[in-house]
Specification:
CATH architecture: 3-Layer(aba) Sandwich
Order of helices and strands: EHEHEHEHHEHEHEEEEEH
CATH class: Alpha Beta
Largest sheet: 7 strands, mixed
Radius of gyration: 17 Å
Length: 241
């Protein structure tokens, strides 16, 4: 029997030269299907009203009504009633702290585990992993813990940039920082380039989009993966409960 567990993790909500979510609209439509009551989490940005309005307008253009958790009288009840969840990007530390402060981690985890589709973009993808330790964001607030939703057993590093051999910058590359993470941690890391996303369903993890990704595992050389690749054997099976 196939698991109902379904997750869509997007590296970035906007790619150069295109509008908000334009590059992934077809995937979102296919992923959501007939779901209604999309619950949006705008907590990664300071202007939550503006962010929610932007998301509401974009989803309305796809014929999906969207409500925002930040104006819900009871956010936990709103999670229980949602037919799909969309967690937007911004600052990952601010997002995780808000989810912790509102006691939303376990309700979201339980809801997605029962089959409710989860869409994350950038920071919303970061929090789908076991921790947010591979975010590149500045810790502008302090969550009680780095532990996040743990919907998937691997870490996401959105907006992944390959080392530039012509750069004179002397700081660590993103690859070096991920390798440092693996010196202290076991979870695989998916360096998800802009324009790429992961679809997790039917027990499989599939890379889609146009830009590919790089998978990092402790004790192994990094692996380049292309769009259409099934990467479950590299990163582990989804944590459907």
């Amino acid at each position: 029997m196939q698991s109902p567990f379904r997750v869509l993790l997007i590296s970035n909500s906007t790619v150069h030269g295109r509008g908000y979510l334009d590059h992934v609209e077809e995937e979102i439509r296919n992923f959501l299907g007939h779901a209604r009551t999309i619950l949006f989490f705008p907590f990664a940005l300071h202007d939550q009203d503006g962010y929610a309005a932007k998301a509401k307008t974009r989803f309305a253009a796809m014929d999906y009504p969207l409500k925002s958790a930040h104006v819900a009288a009871n956010p936990q009840k709103a999670v229980d009633e949602a037919e799909a969840i969309f967690v937007g990007g911004g600052n990952t530390f601010r997002l995780l702290k808000a989810l912790q402060d509102l006691d939303l981690l376990e309700p979201i985890r339980r809801k997605v585990g029962s089959g409710t589709p989860y869409i994350g973009s950038s920071a919303g993808s970061n929090v789908a992993g076991p921790t947010i330790k591979t975010t590149k964001d500045m810790p502008i607030v302090q969550p009680s813990s780095f532990d996040s939703l743990g919907l998937v057993p691997f870490q996401i590093s959105p907006h992944y940039l390959d080392p530039d051999p012509t750069s004179k910058h002397m700081g660590e590359t993103q690859e070096e920082r991920i390798l440092q993470f693996l010196e202290e941690n076991e979870a695989p890391v998916v360096g998800l380039r802009e324009g790429a996303w992961l679809v997790i369903e039917d027990g499989l993890v599939t890379l889609k989009g146009v830009s590919g990704a790089r998978v990092f595992r402790r004790g192994h050389a990094p692996v380049e993966v292309l769009s259409g690749s099934k990467i479950s054997e590299l990163v582990g099976a989804p944590n459907a409960n």
